Amino acid sequence: MRIVSLLPAATEILYAIGAGPEVVGVTHECDFPSEATQKPAVIRPRVDPAAPQEDLDRQVRELSERGESIYAVDGELLEDLAPDLIVTQDLCHVCAASSDDLAASLSRLPPSRRPRVVTFTPHMLADVWHGIRLIAEAAGRLDEGNALATRLAKQVAEIRDRVAASPGQPRVLCLEWFAPPFFAGHWVPEMVRLAGGKDVLGYEGQPSVAVTWEQILNQRPDLIALMPCGYNLARTVEVWKLACPPAGWSELPAVRNGRVYAVDGNGYFSRPGPRLVEGLALLASLLHPEQFSSNDVGVPAEGAACRV
Predict the structure, then answer these.
(1) pLDDT tens digits for 7-30?
(2) DSSP state string for 46-106
(3) Rounded distance between C-alpha atoms, residue 231 and residue 271, angstroms
(4) What is the domain partition of the chain in residue ranges?
(5) How remote is the C-alpha of 151 from its chain's centroid?
């Protein structure tokens, strides 16, 4: 089988179930595992990912207002790769290419050469486990997908049970973007709850939304996790140093108590793949270090989080 993945999370899933050798095309953002970076990129952005957040937000809005996609599909390369299966998404047109971005390229192919298209659109962790099984079935590896999804769900339950005895629920703010500020949505508020916290702005299963700094200040979080979508830890720290939090920021409980953390959002929170469980363990270790230390098995190693 020849598989093209148009979503970094799907690429991770395919490798996790042993279908990595069958992946013949990926996106420009598919960087895990490292082997995926050697595959040709079928998708390229029409914005500058390295631009300052204000400029990147403006580029995305301008394209969206014109009804244009922020991704370009290399139709000729896709045709040359001749995939049997394409995995895409229809959750966030900013995070990755969607089925709409794919339609024009597929229309160039004769019906006999059109691949099966699987759309992966999770909103909660259970949707991620279901998506793993769906992708695995399409890739001919259902047994491996069932085993992976079952193992991940079990690990989540173990983390949830471990922190259940911890006193109190720290109030948590997860920032997915800084300029303008967005709080994290979909599965992240669920992860906060399972890690023993209370998300002060996000709603489980609902998308992230832009908010004002005043709204953030009014919530007075006990812990702040900086997890901009698409950024690793080093990039998050770099961008946060250039951010301009409002007056009153230093009075927030999280800031006063040194509980503002930059995390590798790209690896452990933004992508709905197997590493979300590691992100959950990381959150648990930050929220309840008395129950779940950073040295425990399952918590990502150095390079996943740091205090800022």
Answers:
(1) 999 999 999 999 999 999 999 899
(2) SS-TTS-HHHHHHHHHHHHHTT--SEEE-HHHHHHH--SEEEEE-S-TTTS-BHHHHHHHH
(3) 11
(4) 3-121, 164-307
(5) 20
- Is it true that domain 3-121 has CATH number 2.60.120.1440? no
Beta bridge partner(s), residue 44 = 72
Query: Could you say which architecture CATH assigns to the domain 164-307?
Result: 3-Layer(aba) Sandwich (3.40)
Cα pseudo-dihedral 250, 252, 255, 259, rounded to 10? -170
Question: Is it true that 3-121 and 164-307 share their CATH fold?
Answer: yes
- Indicate yes or no: pTM above 0.70: yes
Interatomic CA distance for residues 42 and 257, integer angstroms: 46
Buried/exposed 267-302: b ≥16 CB within 10 Å, e otherwise: bbbbbbbbbbbbbbbbbbbbbbeebbeeeeeebbee
pLDDT, tens only, 213-259:
999 999 999 999 999 988 999 999 999 998 888 899 999 999 999 99
Decide: residue 251, CB within 10 A, 0-12 exposed, 13-18 middle, 19+ buried: exposed
